[in-house]
Automatic annotation (TrEMBL), chains A, B, C, D:
Record's protein name: Acyl-CoA dehydrogenase
Subunit and interaction comment: Homodimer.
Keywords per UniProt: FAD, Flavoprotein, Oxidoreductase
InterPro entries linked to this entry: Acyl-CoA_dehydrogenase (IPR050741), Acyl-CoA_Oxase/DH_mid-dom (IPR006091), Acyl-CoA_Oxase/DH_mid-dom_sf (IPR046373), AcylCo_DH-like_C (IPR036250), AcylCo_DH/oxidase_C (IPR009075), AcylCoA_DH/ox_N (IPR013786), AcylCoA_DH/ox_N_sf (IPR037069), AcylCoA_DH/oxidase_NM_dom_sf (IPR009100)
GO-annotated biological processes: fatty acid beta-oxidation using acyl-CoA dehydrogenase
Organism expressing this protein natively: Aneurinibacillus danicus
Domain Acyl-CoA oxidase/dehydrogenase middle: 150-247
Homology family: Belongs to the acyl-CoA dehydrogenase family.
Domain Acyl-CoA dehydrogenase/oxidase C-terminal: 260-409
Domain annotation Acyl-CoA dehydrogenase/oxidase N-terminal: ranges: 29-146
Cofactors (names): FAD
GO MF entries: acyl-CoA dehydrogenase activity; flavin adenine dinucleotide binding
GO CC annotation terms, alphabetical: cytoplasm
């Protein structure tokens, strides 16, 4: 069969079959192609060689990070998720996906390209919902990479899968709001300049009208980082904080969006955020894949290269196939979003499908590396630890499966009623 | 989270983000859209209601089949895989894929739409390699659906994964060829008018030059159907024959293509054949999925609809996701082929990935139906039996994984040598 | 590593370590050992060679079956599940398991050894709950293999997972009962002499007191086999019937057990029945495994035996390991039952775990056989079709997982309340 | 079905079925039972509460560890793997397994019970192969827990799966040996008093006669810990060292065993070592399982306990079932070893099967805990990191599958030649 497959085929004889041209088009535009090439070359030359300077939970030292950021800005690849007016690239989701799968290959790259969580998501909310003053004070330095921020939603006392139970409270006192909250998994908390906090402003309103968002400066006397949570993955600069907000008094103009719009803004932030993660995961998976294939061609055991063992070949074939599937699904969801569709079902699909592909590919790459794979001598060990949370953050697999099923069941029922 | 997800989002606020338009385009052309709608309506009205008349291994009775075929021809949806000159639709692979995933929903549909194996593949070889006389005599009635054919490659004595070991022989005797062969898994043998037979013409030549193809009429005195092989799936009209060719004397003009081109033609036939199968599988999987969702909304147990159980919701979410992945991968491979690329890696990927999705989705659909699922009262039972062979025919999973791995390893090594 | 592992080790040096003797003892008694050897030899000599005479849904012809049954009775291996007083072997569950995994290797063996479903289960109920007259009239000829029987519980209109919704009714009329019911999946219905029917006698009683069991002769004028259900697997003699009971009038003495005890008796029948299935599955899996290994040592492709390919070796290793796991779990459950424990959790565990192992091992064995594997030329094709129902009958996987989880959760909660 | 299952059954009616008693006996002896209870109580009272003092890669501080060790010695549960003569418990493998699955529940317990790797394995070699002087000098303080040791086999330059390629060399110089080697993954290296080193003494001998073992004191001037390898798991005191032996001169009496016996001793060490790991994994899996069930009963989301969600119930059922399977297989292998059988196939089976169960159970437990699961606030995060190496150390999965397959194929072929 292999031999058959290796036979040379005169493909020209198929040509005439091509009549009605297909619309399904999987090719990038010239602009996208150029962006891909520039970003790839930059990764090779400037990003991978600097990975060794990454400090767990703290990222790159400033003196290494800053010049790299400057170069990215020069190249016009800074802040792909932001509109041009504010210093970003002003692209659609497909283009963002194509860039993200390159940036995703290195844990330091999102910081170098100005697209790291949670700042990217915070910028998006500020852009959409911020007042001119909020934009001036918080958004512009954030997009420029001058400051970092954090986002405070999850609380230790209640399930993250049911945000209607959040216990944080904001009470009006004169022209101020006074916030009391106990949050955790506040990514990037250490060193952040401000936090966007979700708190109940109308606890007795219907669940989706209960909450509002606020900007709290980190130097607010009531803002206290109780501890940095010891966590499996260490790729995020600023770690993950457990934070108490004790009688944090903030002026009314620090409300973000309107009163009762907290959920709407959170969803605005989370929806695209999920696809951004999925795009980045493709990059992590591809890098892991490349490391696996490369090592399998270098390492020998029992007189054969690892690549000659059928089990290893199965690892390679399965990984390549799964990455291809996840990638196409991600780009498909991005395309739907570019068409103005929420793509809620598609985003949930790639959230759990992509996270599994991510984990499986890294796992196989580690296995091929043997003992070396579980050391920090390759990026795989860090990828593996970081990847475990992908099935939890922004909604656990179980919730996303439920979302997909419910969307489908609803559509089936709607169709029935028509008939 | 569900609640969050259910919150209404003003999507217009995303709109401005869409700057550089994406090329990745997942929408059908207007012509494709029209084809899809016509085919879908025809399936609903004429195909599904006639499934009950299908006889295992024999298909639809002629008096039901013929009028349906006539309607399809009228609609212009006949023989999607063939050029217009010969009575087909003259489409590219993407268009063929979009049609095939509709036709694939019913085991009788390929016969009604003139695109059933092995006739479709045989038509393709005859079109590309046949002489004018062969086209007149064999191809035209075959494409018209007046006769059926079969294809004889696999032999019981040797592994189908290594075709260089095939033992069939054709010896020149004057102006004739005399063929001796023992073949099996000759799909559609019972009732076929002719067989395309692969036999060694130069057994001492290098493996890929050893074999040639011949057209043998079924009324040749040396053509003997030893038995109809009892086989798990029963969707193919004419069953699967074990056939002996004993001193089958045929005239020289019945050689198909040139001497020694057997492999090349087989590959030409198998390559696109594999993607056609994968396209059809999407249809089978989608039909099974629809049956599963529909039943889960109708059947109750312990006071709840099946659709309310989380395990069933997981089945639905996983199945929808896997079908989406397989579908995008199949269309991607088709698109590559439309660009003139052999897409060998992509075809092998969907061959084993798609076959697994197919089997898993049918399996879950059966499980949801409970005991009903293993009866012939729904199409699932037949789908399940038929699907088992998908991981074997046109190359077993194991070979396709090897093909994918070897393509990747070769590409990695080529890149290294450049550096 | 292999080389290391192949090094010869002086194991005597471990000996002294063995101080406290282990109680965990995995060896059979001499009686069990003798039984195993006799049964194995009989299978080789008399069972496998007669498989070719099996007729789908009808089993062995009488003239072949009867002499084989006589031999088994002579050997003292007849009706392993029955007490000695009634012509059985009077063994515990572990012994029954050891015998069943041998009998299970062939679909005709249960009929030859007098231990086929549903007769075995029916015998058990009759033995425990039957009146002396019922035992004389129904049990004795049944255990002797002179007649066959069937068991009627499942109904097409309601979910088999929720038996409290069964709609069959039995109404007292003078000294008679009049039964009206619509049943299906009545295994062995065609040719059965009588049916044990579950019907509501007190529809308004609490669910578990509603039903009673009745013996209905097949020649009752109201007993009508509507159709033989076309079903995927074909190993059961008498097929699977859809049966209507229309005003079936039967005398009061044909009630089996007491009024309202239907559930209790059904559970009595199903509990051990499930483990009997699991025991038999080990036999099917082992036979499939042996066929796989044997073929892998005989068949060559690309100049190598299949057994030399690492993927095939993985199939072998995984299959052997999973069979070992399922076997130990089954024997463990049997042992618990021999101690007087209901082993409800353990039985549910092997029900779903064993059914998966069964399906996976057959699946791999088919894959190794390639196209041959999906033909009836080996037993694998029939095993595969039959095995699909294992995840459905006697409770679907989903229910058994629920049972296991609820048992565990209940135990955890009980322990907490103690503390 | 649940309802059925919940029905009360008079089990006495089964009793008479129990005739031939089963030998398969899954109950512990009274001595084992007592050991289990004592160890369990000690874990509850003294081990779990001290886990919080564990320092990654360094274990418990001496002032906490020492008094706990003293208590264990008093209880007679010290060094279960060692004979009584030398201060151990003198048990067989089954008993050791029963104890190990308790000790395995906590990463600090092996140190408290005197059974931690690599000291346990080193003690075994020293006991079997050591001279009286070596026993006095190294074994006695090691078994007493006064010193720690390490074991040096793996080298960065060659594949650990093929030990015949090890490059370490020992050359005779007068009455001394001079060792040069570059080793890594030397567990416990930091703080060890001595290392057992595998080095080639006869590089030209047949592979299995090439190597010998030597005891090298850590204060040997040529012994240099190049670095502590940054590694995913952190449960081992003393970490994992990369160690250079540069012209390490040692006296002839420091050879362990005879010249050329290195492989034999390594295998002696690794064989039982593998089963000891598997035993311990059962404990890790059970602890993770308990944490999962417990949390599912405490945590609520959307108004329901996690334990009420069917997906979580599936996690519980699958985990319990897989643990049961792995446990029985491990005890079965131990039992075979107690019978004087090498149980090579069974040990390889549990090596890869058990490692997968371990990983899957921890993974599900983390998923149930959500974000909490990936923090160090529960033991799960550490378990997860440590567990990844289980599929690599003492032979990767791939090698163990090969061992199982080869053993089976060899047995099949042997049987054929008999026939």
């Amino acid at each position: 069969m292999i031999e058959l497959v290796d036979a040379i085929i005169d493909l020209f004889i198929f040509k005439h079959l091509t009549g009605v041209m297909s619309m399904f088009d999987f090719s990038p535009t010239p602009e996208q192609q150029e962006m891909i090439e520039k970003a790839t070359a930059f990764m090779d030359e400037y990003v991978y060689p600097n990975e060794k300077y990454m400090v767990p939970h703290r990222g790159l030292p400033e003196d290494i990070l800053r010049p790299l950021q400057a170069r990215v800005k020069e190249m016009g690849l800074w802040a792909g998720h932001m509109p041009k007016e504010i210093g970003g690239m002003g692209m659609g989701f497909v283009s963002l996906g194509l860039l993200s799968e390159i940036i995703g290959r290195s844990p330091i790259a999102p910081y170098i390209f100005g697209s790291m969580a949670p700042d990217a998501g915070n910028s998006e909310i500020l852009w959409h919902a911020g007042t001119p003053e909020q934009k001036r004070k918080y958004l512009i330095p954030l997009v420029n990479g001058e400051i970092r921020s954090c986002f405070a939603m999850t609380e230790p006392e209640v399930s993250g899968s049911d945000p209607t139970t959040l216990q944080a409270r904001a009470e009006k006192d004169g022209n101020d709001w006074v916030i009391n909250a106990h949050k955790w998994f506040t990514t990037g908390a250490i060193g952040a300049s401000f936090s966007i906090v979700m708190a109940a402003t109308d606890p007795d309103a219907p669940p989706h009208k209960r909450f509002s968002m606020f900007i709290v400066d980190a130097d607010n006397p009531g803002f206290e980082i109780v501890r940095e949570i010891p966590i499996m993955g260490d790729h995020y600069t600023g770690g993950h904080g457990e934070v108490r907000y004790t009688n944090c008094r903030i002026p009314a103009e620090n409300m973000l969006g309107n009163r009762g719009e907290g959920f709407k803004l959170a969803q605005l932030r989370l929806g695209p955020g999920r696809i951004t993660h999925a795009m980045r995961w493709i990059g992590v998976a591809k890098r892991s894949f490349d490391l696996m294939v490369d090592y399998s061609l270098r390492r020998e055991t029992r007189g054969k290269k690892l690549a000659e063992f059928q089990t290893i070949q199965n690892f390679i074939a399965d990984s390549a196939t799964e990455i291809e599937a996840a990638r196409l699904m991600t780009l498909y969801a991005a395309w739907k979003m570019d068409q103005g569709d929420q793509a809620r079902k598609e985003i949930s699909m790639i959230k759990f499908f992509g996270a599994k592909v991510l984990q499986d590919v890294i796992d196989r790459a580690i296995q091929v590396h043997g003992a070396l794979g579980i050391t920090a001598d390759t990026p795989l060990e860090g990828f593996y630890r970081e990847a475990r949370s992908a099935r939890i953050y922004d909604g656990p697999d179980e919730v996303h499966r439920m979302v997909v099923a419910k969307q489908i069941l609803k559509a089936f029922q709607a169709e029935r009623q028509l008939v």
